[in-house]
UniProtKB/TrEMBL annotation:
Keywords: Dioxygenase, Oxidoreductase. Transmembrane segments: none annotated. It comes from Sphingomonas colocasiae. This is Phytanoyl-CoA dioxygenase family protein. Signal peptide: none annotated.
Length: 282
């Protein structure tokens, strides 16, 4: 795990719109996820579907104990709270293996440029705290063959536009190409312009996206299913407010949402984070 401290990361994130947690997951954990993928696809695909559904959504409801580490990573949640305050909720966990594409077809293209859900087109250079963040992890080294992640650094604070439909799938003149390692997590601001790259490796390109938004917003994953509710009950038994909040259960939301805002937000966040920690029973 990278030794960067929270403040260093925060200033990097504010500047560039992302930060990388190196080695967030080890080989054993990643292998366990990969081993389960085919079966999750099978369960995720309706009987009458013409093709398997490769994009596994609500992965946590299918495999709660296997997938929980992908959403409840303490280093990433500590940082997310630094960025958005103690309001972090899971919007969606997507687990997917992108199939390989013919090289001739993919040559010189990117997947598609976009900002993420709840993002916006910046209209000034100031840093605005995100309403949502994406924690993206790849389960193999992102070589040129597997398809690196591309970002336009600072595009969460600059009105970087994509001029035409055709430009959506072309490399960007200001892009930075991130050839991250297996198990690294790229944590992005929702307004950072980014794109994947087609996979031409001949093998599946495993990836997951843990998308966090601000508690109170709607979530794409349904957290009311029996498996996720078992996690919530376990969290309740320990009074683990942060874990319960991930699934939309936040007993402190009313006073914190209506806190009068007479002191800097970070000061109030620190106090609330300390309260949440103190409330946790061992
Ligand atoms: O496939 C990739 O590398 C990028 C994924 C992505 O753009 C996203 O999760 O929003």
């Amino acid at each position: 795990m990278s030794v960067k401290n929270l403040e260093q990361r925060l200033s990097e994130f504010r500047e560039r719109g992302y930060t990388i947690f190196e080695g967030a997951y080890d080989a054993g954990q990643m292998q366990a996820w990969k081993d389960c993928y085919e079966d999750m696809v099978r369960r995720n695909t309706p009987r009458d579907a013409p093709e398997p559904r490769l994009r596994v959504t609500s992965a946590l409801e299918q495999e709660p104990w296997l997938m929980l580490p992908a959403v409840n990573n303490q280093a990433i949640l500590d940082f997310a709270e630094r960025v958005m305050g103690p309001f972090i909720q899971l919007d969606n966990l997507t687990f997917m293996a992108f199939p390989s594409e013919p090289r001739e077809q993919a040559e010189g293209t990117v997947s598609f440029w976009h900002r993420d859900r709840w993002g916006w087109m910046p209209d000034g250079p100031q840093y605005i705290r995100p309403t949502a963040c994406n924690a993206i992890c790849y389960l193999q080294d992102l070589t040129d063959e597997y398809g690196p992640l591309r970002v336009v650094e600072g595009s969460h604070r600059r009105a970087v536009t994509i001029e035409s439909e055709a430009h959506r799938t072309l490399p960007h003149p200001d892009e930075t190409v991130l050839r991250v390692k297996a198990g690294d997590v790229v944590f992005t601001h929702c307004s950072l312009l980014h794109s994947g790259t087609p996979n031409t490796s001949g093998k599946p390109r495993y990836f997951f996206s843990t998308y966090y938004n601000r508690v109170g917003l709607p979530t794409r994953d349904n957290h009311k299913g029996p498996s996720v509710q078992r996690i919530v009950e376990m969290a309740r038994a320990r009074n683990d407010r942060r874990l319960m909040r991930l699934f939309g259960v936040d007993d402190a939301i009313e006073p914190r949402a209506n806190a009068l805002f007479l002191r800097p937000d970070e000061e109030m966040w620190d106090k609330w984070i300390a309260e949440d920690r103190a409330a946790l029973s061992q």
